[in-house]
Amino acid sequence: MLNHLENIKNNKVKLEIEVASPDVDTALAKAYRKVVRQINLPGFRKGKVPRRILETRFGPEVLHEEALELLVPSAYEEALKEADISPINQPDFELVQIEEGKPLLFNAVVEVMPPVEINEYKGIKVEQTEAVVDDIQVEQNLFMLREQSARLIPKEDGTAEEKDLLTIDFKGFIDGEPFEGGEAENYSLELGSKTFIKGFEEQLLGVSPEEEREVRVKFPDDYGKEELAGKEAFFKVTVKQIKKKQLPELDDEFAKEASEFDTLEEMKEDLREKLLNNAREESKERMEEALIGKIAEESNVDLPQTLVERQLDRLIGEFETYLRYQGMNMDQFLNLAGKKIEEIREERREEAEKRTRINLVLDAIAKKEGIEIEDSELDDKIASIAESYNDSAERVREIIDKQGRLPVIREEMRIRKVIDLLVSEAQIKLVKKETGKPDKEDEGEDTPAKEKQDSDEIAIDSDADAETEAEIAEKEKK
């Protein structure tokens, strides 16, 4: 049972916990029966050494350790319930007393969720930018589609130009010696992509296929790797192949190949509608972020560093996922960027603190409003995920449950409900994208939001890893 609860600084508490002596005696007896089976002493059969002799020979601690494993976890959990606190890290235990015929006394120091003081969160004024798509955006996206459909034609004659794709071998030297990370074979480099440090790609302009060229560069003084910072280096580069992008003509034939439409105009209209839908969604997300940001900024909460570090871990995980989609890992990125992982973490610390604050505030609002997710709502969500992957709800639930993500999805849905509540109670002003002035339709007047925003997607990060439930289901299916 909990004898005493003491608040310590930095959101830490000390629990003084007691276990009744009969329970201690029972645990010590169980510990003896377990330990004695492993003991061999001359003059005694294995497993038959008397307890007093065992304790005299090996010390009472040999039983104490086993008894503590039996008693402490359940006693600690019970004390947490009595104190009504939610720990956010593992406790530090301190043994005070364990002895036959006496109660067990121990202390547990643990970091807990901080108190959150929320100011007004209903009726908040916030702006939402009007979703607009112009001809320039349509043309830019058409150009990207052409780029994706471009053919890469080997350049047998002529020299390398901006945007040509080179396949190269290179080896770097500093003071005549090779250096780590300065060598690669069959590396694909698009001239003008600024993948390498300044000056490297520029010196390959005009190169011919099969040509060998020396490239001389200087690493920046603030380069992340101290052993390279400010150093002059030269690279032996062999150009194995040069390819030029050949873009398709922008006509009806292109539309037929790149889409389900027969004409370019039909394709453009469809593209415009998709861009408009994306713009609406982005506008909604920015408005929600601004709204939640306002509420979080006005709330008072002491951020636990444990939660900030966890959020940093998730941000780094998200970045590693992004890098994998780009065909590289973290080590390769750090080498190219000339940075250390500690620098990457520090660059994201402010964002981690922001997310942590928002998560704590949204959780506090959920508790204040009594917002929870019913089992039937969770069932509907899983059914929706299953339908999107043309799979059964039972199988998808099994996959998600196996990975321990059912509580995560429930929490994401709970937070989504909170956001929907905040949006429904907010005073949202529609403003034009070009000027920032109110749209003519509402004359700039503040109007309460009448409908809940679409909540099918979880937009705000919760205390979970970066992968969505759908991604997990997809991975399992593969």
Write the layout of secondary structure elements.
Elements lengths: L1 E7 L3 E8 L1 H16 L14 H8 L2 H23 L8 E6 L6 E8 L4 E2 L7 E5 L5 H14 L2 E4 L10 E10 L2 E14 L21 E7 L13 E15 L5 H7 L5 H34 L2 E2 L3 H21 L4 H8 L3 H7 L1 H21 L5 H14 L4 H10 L3 H20 L1 E5 L15 E2 L20 H9 L1
Parallel strand pairs: 6-13
Antiparallel strand pairs: 1-2, 2-4, 3-4, 5-12, 7-11, 8-9, 8-11, 10-11, 13-14
Helix pairs in contact: 1-3, 4-6, 5-6, 6-10, 7-10, 10-13, 11-12
Sum up the overall morphology in one term.
Answer: extended
Number of strands: 14
Percent in helix: 40-55%
Q: CATH H-level name of the largest domain... which superfamily?
A: Trigger factor, C-terminal domain
Please report the first level of CATH classification, the CATH class of the largest domain: Mainly Alpha
Short summary:
This protein is of the alpha+beta class and 478 residues long.
Structure explained in plain terms:
It is a single chain. α5 packs across α6 and α11 (375-388) packs across α12. This protein is α+β, with helices and mostly antiparallel strands. Mean pLDDT is 88; it is low at 435-478. The strands form 4 sheets. Strands 7, 8, 9, 10 and 11 form a 5-stranded antiparallel sheet that branches. It has helices at residues 21-36, 51-58, 61-83, 135-148, 252-258, 264-297, 305-325, 330-337, 341-347, 349-369, 375-388, 393-402, 406-425, 469-477, and strands at 2-8, 12-19, 92-97, 104-111, 116-117, 125-129, 151-154, 165-174, 177-190, 212-218, 232-246, 300-301, 427-431, 447-448.
